[in-house]
Structure formats: structure tokens, C-alpha cells
Amino acid sequence: MKNIIILGSTGSIGVNALKVVSQLNAKRGLKEKYQVVGLSGHSNIGLLKKQICDFGVKLVSVSDDRAAIDIKVWAKQKHLKLKVLKGASGLKQLAGQKNSDMVLSSVVGFAGLEPLLAALKQGKKVALANKEALVVAGDLVMREACCSGAQIIPVDSEHSAVFQCLNSELSGVRNNRSIRRIILTASGGAFYQHKGSLDKVTVSQALAHPTWQMGKKITIDCATLTNKGLEAIEAHYLFGVPMDKIHIVIHPQSIVHSLVEFEDGAVLAQLSHPDMRLPIQYALTYPERVPAQLRYLELEKIQKLEFFKPDFHRFPCLNLVLTAGRKGGLWPAVFNGANEEAVKAFLGGHILFTDISKVIQRVMNAFPREQNILAKEKKMDLQKVLKADQWARNQTYKVSVF
């Protein structure tokens, strides 16, 4: 029996992960069965209650006192033995539970950093779907994994694709000497084929992703192409490849999930229909592969696969996030904090879509250069990252057009 904790179980990744667990447990002859021993949810408490019942979970973490009281009263009425944790400390406590074999982290945004570190400190196998943790504190995260012997299996479809390509070629993903480039593919988001100005596009238009069904924050990041820049930084840390060896192309069909080009010119790619259950299942069963209840790829029906250069002029957030990644140090944390607040403001109707990049640019321009130099000269630690993140969020409201 493999015991699993799912952080962010009510989000898109978490819901799909529980579907995968159910499908795996229903298979005959599977070497291991999967027991969900802990869940965390944010706002969809109704769904969290259903998941608790469906999987017999005994430990949960919720965001605040109100949700905790709600869950406790409900559990008492249902005669369930349920321990309820709350807040950021509860999430860290859940992630660091010693009775689990694997933690799947799909908490959205910066909030996923400390729970990830708590899981890694325990030497867990971590299926990682939270890119921001690596973006803001990649050195710290990878150092913790190395010290504890924890293993990180990427769940993002692009990084899962790279991971699979490298595992088929190399003895471990950190052996990167023969890699010429990692090529990350992007669908282009809601507006890549949009004609005319993006000033007046609405929130509902920005959330209409052409390929993937995801949460609101990541969908807006896809619309600005920020998500692909964040993934480039994540790939830099996961695979030990310099930022200038990570290339981005627009691929509207979302069939090729990413590619690895080697020094001899050979290119390996991972292809499949766009369905997050595939990388989730691969992370759970790795290094084994088992049949999945997914569509198999028929290239003759797809007929064509297209690739284009990103438009950095129309989507300035992509250049900003890549610049932050190349500068390193605390710059990615500053970018991420500003971006999360700007996206929140856009979703709330306070700024225009095109204001997102303007806000981020102003925050980055205001960040003291000497502060980043000092951080890079000394060993990066969690407190420096937390302070940079908070500074960026506060600065966002000082320089913005809210």
C-alpha cells in the first residue's frame, strides 16, 4: 500500500489526481494500491467533504478557522474520526506527516513553497504540480531535496515530458552534459490568435483557454504567457540546465508536450492528447508504466502539428519573467509576488489585462539592485525569499493603477 497526501485536492490537479487513484485501485494485478491519507482544500469545502467520505481520509487541512469549524461540525454529525488542521502551519504539518510515502503538491502559487519544503525535509517522494515554489526558491528547494534524499517527480505536462525524455536517454535527470536545448511548448493561451488590441479583453475571455481546463490564476498566466516563463525557470532548477538552453515555442495543438535536443542533433519528444491524468499517473506509478483510461494518439487524425515563435511584443510578461529568471537571486520571487497580486486585481475587475505587465514592470524597476546582489553573495534562505515576496506584494499596490 502506498500512502498519499494530496495538497490542493479541490483544485483541477487534485480532482484529477483522485480520479487517477480510483482508476489505479480498480485495476487488477497492480503491484501497489494507493491509500489517500491526507487532503487539503481552500474554498470548495463542499467538494472536500465529499472527497473525505469517498476516500476514507482521517486528516485534512483547510484555510481558516471558519472552514475548520464547518468541517469539524460536519464530521461530528457524520460520526467520522477526522483530525482537522488549519492555515499555513496546518498545511506544512500535513505535508510533513511521517505516515505518507508520497505528497502530491498542487497548491496554487507562493503558498506551496513552505509545504513543499516540509515534505522534502522528511525525504518524501514529491509529485510537484506547484511551479511557483521552484521559481521563487529553486536553489533552496533543490538543496533540501539533495540533503534529505527526497525525489521530485514533475507533474506539469511540459516538465513531465522532459523528465520522460531524459529518463529514456540518460542515467538520471541531473546528468545534463549532452543536452543542447530543452524546448518547452506553449498552447498560446486565450489570445495568441486574437486580432487587435488586448486592452479591452474581459476576464471571461481571458479564462477561455483553448486546450486545458485549469484554475483561474494559471489560466490567466497562460493568457499572458507568464506561465511558460515560470516553467522555464522551473525547468532550469529541475534539470540543472542554464536558462539560455531553454527554448519556448507556441504549439496550438498541445500534442507535443515538450522536447529535448541533444548535442548530436537528435530530438526526443513526448506526445499525447492534452490530459493531466497522464503526467499525474506517471508521477504516482514512476518508474513503472501502467495502462491508463485515456485516449491513445492517432496521428493520422491529427494530421498537422504547428510551431511558432512567441510574440514578446504583444505578451511582455513573458520577457519580464525570463529576465527575472536570468538575473536569478530574489528577482523571480519579486516577479512572482507582483504577478500574483496583479492577476488577482485583473480577476477582480480592478485593472485591465494589459495593466498586468505594466504593474510587474514597475515593481521590478523599484526593486533595489543591491538587495539582490547581497542575497546572491550569501546563502539563499527561506526568510530572504519570504521578505522579497512580501516586499513585491506591498510594492504592487504602491506603483499600480488599482
Highlighted features:
alpha/beta; Rossmann fold; 49% helix; 14% strand; 7-stranded parallel β-sheet; 402 residues; Rna Polymerase Sigma Factor, Chain: A; globular; 4-stranded mixed β-sheet
Number of strands: 11
CATH class of the largest domain: Mainly Alpha
* N-to-C order of helices and strands: EHEHEHEHEHEHEHEHHHEEEHHHHHHH
Between the first and last Cα atoms, what is the distance in angstroms? Answer: 51 Å
How many structural domains?
Answer: 2
Anisotropy-based shape: globular
- Strand fraction equals 5-15%
CATH homology superfamily of the largest domain: RNA polymerase sigma factor, region 2, helix turn helix motif
In DSSP terms, counting alpha (H) and pi (I) runs of 4 or more, how many helices? 17
Please name the CATH architecture of the largest domain: Orthogonal Bundle
Helical content class: 40-55%
Give the mean pLDDT. 92
Notes on the structure:
The protein has 402 residues and is an alpha/beta fold. It has 2 domains: 2-154, Rossmann fold (3-Layer(aba) Sandwich); 162-399, RNA polymerase sigma factor, region 2, helix turn helix motif (Rna Polymerase Sigma Factor, Chain: A). It contains 17 helices and 11 strands. The strands form 2 sheets. It has a 7-stranded parallel sheet with strand order 4-3-2-1-5-6-7, sandwiched between helices. A 4-stranded mixed sheet has the order 9-8-10-11, with helices on one face. Strand 2 (34-40), helix 2 (45-55) and strand 3 (59-62) form a beta-alpha-beta unit. Helix 5 (113-121) packs parallel to helix 6 and helix 13 packs antiparallel against helix 14 (331-347). The protein is globular, with a radius of gyration of 21 Å. The mean pLDDT is 92.
